[in-house]
Amino acid sequence: MTETHFDIDTLLAQAGNHDNHDQFHAISTPIYLASNFRHRDLEDVENFDPKKQYSYSRLATPTRNVLQKTLAELEGGAQAFALSSGMAAIQLAFSLFKTGDEIVTSDDLYGGSFRYFDYLTDHYGIKFRQWNGQDYDQLAKLVTEDTKGVWLETPSNPTMKIIDIDRVAEITHQANQKALVCVDNTFLTPVYQRPLAAGADIVVHSATKYLSGHNDMLAGVVVAKTNEVADALAFNFNTTGAVLDPFDSWLLLRSLKTLSVRMQRHTANAQYVAKQLEKLPQVQKVLYPGKGGMISFYVQNRDQVDQLFKRLKIISFAESLGGVESLLTIPSLQTHHDMPEADRLKLGITDELLRLSVGLENPNDLAADLAQGLGN
Ligand SMILES: *Cc1c(COP(=O)(O)O)cnc(C)c1O
């Protein structure tokens, strides 16, 4: 399917179908468990076309190629790359920058991204400037002609602030046409948010989360809007090699087929659970951006947190998000533990803040589980 005018529901359901890799025309894309491919003769090697042929699987392999083509279509980009984890995807995106480059980031990001940015500063001298994700006049002052990239997550993690990607892209590109606006689209997925259409240059995903959606694999994705950026990424992808293997490529392709249906149910469930949480006397505040399956909420004290984790019968006390099973985490001790305490508290990441990934269970059962867990 190369026609991009089809609705995203159709693209997802048809992922990998009508692909001509397989001589038997299987509806489900086959898994090619091959690390290498035979050449016919010397001429075959001399005229090798990496866009059409295969040689060695780090460079390209059929199952991953079908997946990458699908991902590029979903995000509306020129090319996509499937990697072994979300962090590997973030690392690939940052391979476009070098020592001395200035990057502006929003302030409320996945904890692992902060950890990596500190590493990049210490080891490679990349300079990071932080933006609060809300004040666009402040952003206009932060980005200059020296800004090489802007990195953001929206909704933010874990405090669910919404960033206007169009405005960020416009302000950034006005300051420097060549600056790369990068969006981590893990929380909303292309079903709800297409950053490239809003003016961003690069999209990344932890496909460990909603794209795969079953709490059973790790994967990452980078999508580039232009072929120019994609070619630089392709070189680094092949050179550093954190590629997704054929089996996980197939699993992710299979998972994408139900992404739209899953996202709709995650949203319906989360809307209901957010409303029910607001009615509980122990809940101080609920943060829910209206779409997707992620809710953060504050309880009154640490005893309630402890009690809740011990009493839950359906929802698991576990890191990660985006799967069919509902999960509850405490960001201050888990995902954001490596962030300095003062920075954490400034963002509102207290020990009373909990982050819920609402799964696909019955929403009444989920709301009841939280209510009884908090002692109601
Ligand atoms: C989990 C996550 C990552 C990191 O992805 P891994 O697959 O765990 O390496 C990056 N960004 C966001 C928003 C995440 O939730």
From TrEMBL:
Domain of life: Bacteria
Keywords assigned by UniProt, alphabetized: Lyase, Pyridoxal phosphate
InterPro entries the UniProt entry points to: Cys/Met-Metab_PyrdxlP-dep_enz, Cys_met_metab_PP, PyrdxlP-dep_Trfase, PyrdxlP-dep_Trfase_major, PyrdxlP-dep_Trfase_small
Any one of the GO CC terms: cytoplasm
Cofactor: pyridoxal 5'-phosphate
GO terms classed as biological process: transsulfuration
GO molecular function, one term: carbon-sulfur lyase activity
Gene3D superfamilies, sorted: Aspartate Aminotransferase, domain 1, Type I PLP-dependent aspartate aminotransferase-like (Major domain)
Protein name: Putative cystathionine beta-lyase
Source organism per UniProt: Lentilactobacillus parafarraginis F0439
